[in-house]
Each structure stands twice: as C-alpha cells, then as structure tokens.
Amino acid sequence: MIERKSGQYQGRNKSSAYKDLVWTVATSSDISVGIEQQTKLTLATIQMNLVELGADKTRIVSAQIYIANMADKPLMDGVWQSWLGDKPEHWPQRACLGVNLEGSVLIEVTVTAVRR
Predict the structure, then answer these.
(1) Across all residues in the chain, what is the average pLDDT?
(2) Long-range contact pairs involving 77-82 (C-beta distance under 8 Å, separation at least 24)
(3) H-type helices in the chain, by residue range?
C-alpha cells in the first residue's frame, strides 16, 4: 500500500512511501531570506518529512537540488555538507541543477530515502 502525506498545495503530496522507500520534496518556509537560510529551512523540512515516514537524512540514497542561481551553489553546498555531517557512509548521490523557480524561491530539494 502506498502511504501519502498531504502538504499545503492542492494536487500534490509532500511525501510518499511504498514498502521501504520514501520520497519527499520541500522548499523554504521563508522565501524572504537568502540562499543559505532557505537551504537550512528546506533541509529541516526534508528531515521532518522523512522522520514522519520512518526514515531520516542518514537514509537518503538520492537527492536532486534545484537552485535559482548556480552562482549560489557554493553557499548551498556549505549548508548541505554541514547538514549531512562528515560521515561518507551517510552521503547520498546528488545532482544540482540551475532552474527557474517561482517567485523568490531560491531552492527546492527532492530526495529518496530508505525506511528503517
């Protein structure tokens, strides 16, 4: 059975799970701040979403990061690396793409993780 956790937007869920896999997506809860703070807020939401379905950031196997300005990638990377920690066994494969995001949204993150 597929588990779905509704979010705040119509027509899509914030998270889904099937068997041992969890998928979630997030943007910043405050889009008035810069890329570093938006990244911190987005990753905090990702972690909460994962925990809600029995996973956590150490169980992420794949991540896609979409940023509005590729010049911000080094700043985002610093926050990302700090959030993940220094244990390579917890680092997922990851892609980062520069895209047009809506309004003042600077980052969107989607991940796939394995439940405990």
Answers:
(1) 96
(2) 78/36, 79/36, 79/39, 79/40, 79/43, 80/39, 80/43
(3) 35-52, 73-84
Tell the residue number behind the tokens 């895209």, with chain if given: 99
Q: What does the alpha-carbon distance between residue 106 and residue 89 come to, in Å, rounded to a whole number?
A: 28
Tell me which long-range contacts 77-86 makes (C-beta under 8 A, separation of at least 24): 78/36, 79/36, 79/39, 79/40, 79/43, 80/39, 80/43, 83/40, 83/43, 83/57, 84/57
If you ran DSSP here, which 8-state letter would residue 91 be given? P
pLDDT(66) > 90 = yes
Judge whether 57 and 90 are in contact, CB under 8 Å.
yes
Quick check: helix, strand or coil at residue 10? Answer: coil
Amino acid symbol at 71: A
For residue 15, the tally of other CB atoms under 10 A from its CB is: 23
Provide the pLDDT for residue 71: 98
What domains, with CATH codes, occur in the chain? 2-114 (3.30.1330.40)
Distance CA 90, CA 71 (A): 26
Mean per-residue pLDDT, 65-72: 98
